[in-house]
Structure formats: structure tokens, C-alpha cells
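Sequence only, no structure available. Ideas?
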Amino acid sequence: MIYKMRIFLLLFFLQSFLYGKAEEKHFRLFSDEMKTAYPSVIYDFLEHYLYKLDSLQTANPLAMNHLKQDKVIFKKGSPKTARKITPSHPFSLRIIDDKFYEAVWSDSTQKEILHMVFPVSFELILGMPKNKVERKMKQDLLAMPKTFVADTVFQLEVKEYQPGIFIPTNTTYSEIKELNTNTYFSKNKDSKLYPIYDSKHLAYSSANLLQGIISNCNKYKLNIYQNLYDFQHEEYTITLSQWLNYCKAMHATVYLGVEEEREDGIKVLLLVHSHDLGFHHMLSIVLPWKLVEKPDAVLKAKLNAYIPTHNIMSIYQERLQPISNKK
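Reply:
I predicted one. C-alpha cells follow.
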């Protein structure tokens, strides 16, 4: 079976002064230079997870049965092989169909010494169950910078969507077909693209704002009502810039669509997909008709965080029910 693969890291080789060293309950498998050049939470996961497995295997070989629960497979080597690995060993990491990671360490002759496959699961990689990760969301958002630097250089291949309105040719759609990655542009006299941002085109302007291509975004605030595990919730306020910086830091793909038009504005639904960690956030925001004229507006939003991919459609269908009842 041929898989469609997205390569995250190519082979990387650095000379090291550490040899199979374990530091404070984790192995030292990657250099600081590599972590800086290719930022990823996967490094910490591998260093801590392999150390944990090695410790369990040493204490009680039967304790390794939880590998089946984690759906982790060793195709070459075992956890104790990590003792021999140093940051100087060539390493490659790739993701297969957004479902599995494949991590491979080799020796200087490119012969595999450790080859493991593990699911793209935020609970496994972050080492926390969903209910605990949910409660960290507020903390993670508030830790983001309050100033966002929007993309302002647009070298895109576009097509005409409507007379005088252009969209990128590489638009992608989520599994919810109504949501996509579209941004919307006009052209000036020099045929240069500039993002639409005016009250006449509120839906297009909202997409551009929430996709992070509008410079005048730093005064908007989000009042978030976050649904939590066990029918609980939490309410807090952040800046829109903190939300945009969070999505950017997560290397997330943001899909967006207008859910409904209301007297007070439009309700927009965002689906934020983290390919690296295998989760979605679903955020609905009410944007007032005078959004552009009120750059300091407080936008009301509802958030369902860390939704596993297989639950997306069912949660979306639940959202449609109350909307249908209003019609």
C-alpha cells in the first residue's frame, strides 16, 4: 500500500559530545541546535517516552503491554536501544496520512538502529488525557503575544471568484465541506493583490481577519466560552492577536465558513486542525456588521477544544440542530 507522506524532518547530522545520556527522567536524543532549527513537540515526547519505556522494561518486562494501548510499534530495535543513541545520529521523522508518525535513527552507514511508529495523538504525545489538556487551553492562549504581525506580501496564484474578487487557486476544504481556507483579494491599478477588508464584504473581510492577513487586528478581543469535559465550562477574554499567534505557533490549518446571518452580525465557524498533534478546535464567533469600523470590538466566541478527528462530523451535526430549529 502506497501512503501519501508528508516529510517533517530530513536526515540531520550533528557532532555531539553526549553519549546515550539520560537527564532528569528523559534521554538526550536531540541537540539544542536541531530543536531550534526544526521546532517540534515530538522531540520532548520521544526523549521522555523512550526513557519511560526503558525504565518500565527494566523493572518489569510485563509492564510493556501498555504499548498495545498506545498503538506504538517498534519495527527495529527496542526502548533500550535509545541508550545507545546520541544527538549525532542521523534522524528522520515523517507523518503518514495524518495518522501515524514514523521515527527512524540510523548509524553513520545509514543502517537503521531504531525504527518506531506511533499514532498522531495529542493525548499520547502530550502525555495527558483530553480533560486535562482542555483545561490548559486558557493558559496556552494567555501565554501568546498580544501583538500579531499579519502576512502582508501576497505572491499567490489566484483565480477570479466573483467580478473583481480573487481567491487562491490552492484552496483546501475540511471534511466539513462548508469550511475552507479561502482568503479574498482585490487588485489595485498595478494589479497587485490586497486583502478585502470593508463592511460591504463582511464575510470575506471576516475570513481575511481570522486567517491572519489583516494588519489592523491588534485591538480586537475575544470573549471565549469554552466547553469542558463533564458538562463544565470556562469563560475568559483574550486578544484576537493571541488567538492568531496560537494558531500560527501550532502550525495549524484554519478552515472557515459563515454559519448564519443574524440581526447583530454573522456567525462564523472556524475549524482549526493541528496536523502535528492530531486534534481540531471548533470555534464559533459572532462578528458585528460594523466590524471594520469597530477595531476595538469584543467578539463573542464559543470553543470546543481538542476534538479527535473522528468526532468532528458528529459535533458539527449537533451544532446544526439548534440553527435548523430557528428557521
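The mean pLDDT is 88.
Hope that gets you unstuck.
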